[in-house]
# Entry
Amino acid sequence: MPTRSVTSTACLLVPSLALSCELAERPQLAGARVALADASGARVVDCTAEAARYGVRAGQQLRTAAALCPSLVTIEERPAYVARIAEALLEALLTVSPLVEEAAPGTLYASLHGLDGLYPAPGAVERAILAAAPRTLQPRLGIANTRFTALVAAHCAAPGESLRVDAEDAAHFLGGRPAAWLPLDGEAIERLHRFGIETIAGFAALLAHAVEAQFGTAGRNAWLAARGLDPTPLRPRPFAPERVVEHAQNEPPLVSREAVTLTLEQLLIRALRHPRAQGRFIRSIRLRATTEDDRLWERTQMLREPSGDRARLWHTIRPLLEYAQYPGPIAHLELELGGLTAERARQPSLLDTERVRCREQMDEMVRHLKLRYGLSPMARVVEVESWSRIPERRWALMDYDP
# Structure
């Protein structure tokens, strides 16, 4: 009996997350012509398929959309609420796999390598992911050997269901899908339509060198993806550094800048008293304010040098508040101190030369970038086989991690 090929990538998908969040709270609007408006109420952010049939589309002026569809129902977007739902989806997938990538709000990938022992029964891993995700959003789950095939499988799955595609079936499964689903930009998709290529199978039938000549490296990767050989690796979110988070629920909501400033100053005092922050230095500060109607204001500040001094941290926070334009009365405030480090003091070099100062500045810059992006962006050259006649074997690049 032939063994089934191992699938290794899952895609958890909620199409049009912001609109889906609003419709989940308003089941009476199922099947209605609905448009999601931006915070200013001037433009369409997203719309249902029923509204799209009348010519409503994203980016359109709201008054134009209303003229095209007189029965259009308008809902204003709530960024803070959508951010909480996106975080809930991420946490749901992290309960099953530690390697999760959030490609976009509502589109997440996870590696399933090594989970066979935890979920040995057929369909067990699918049930675990869907059970952890918010059911009201009716998420879709696709599982395949590559991320593109998993994404297409998620698009084809029924709401609240999963679809698994084995490696040997990937090319056939992808063939009949629209070419618009390919991982190419809008201009490239439009060019494919002008060439008469409407399906993924039609794109996969092209010669590889011709595709690369027309669309470059992105076209080559899309051509491989169309054949079930997507080379794009999973880029899991780096493990979050240790942090301290303090919240303040304001009733009634804060309407003055002075009240917001005073509340955040109290949150900073509470955060520095937290046991995890005692005797530690902070590398990043994040402020988040949410209004009564779930509008979001957020700022993140990376410190050039880690500090545990309250006066210095407040000196960093205060300018962010003085020039802030809040979207409305603040109902909820959040302060996060991130990148906690055990560094307590610094001993400057006795040889205070320009070279030593440059090295210290470079080390600090690398620590700063590593905290921000999750990995060291610099490498160093090390000698490996100095005796080799092949130049590539004499030296190697290693990550520079001070």
About this structure: The chain has four domains: 1-175, 176-226, 244-338, 354-399. Confidence is low (pLDDT under 50) at residues 1-5. The CA atoms of residues 43 and 62 lie 5 Å apart.
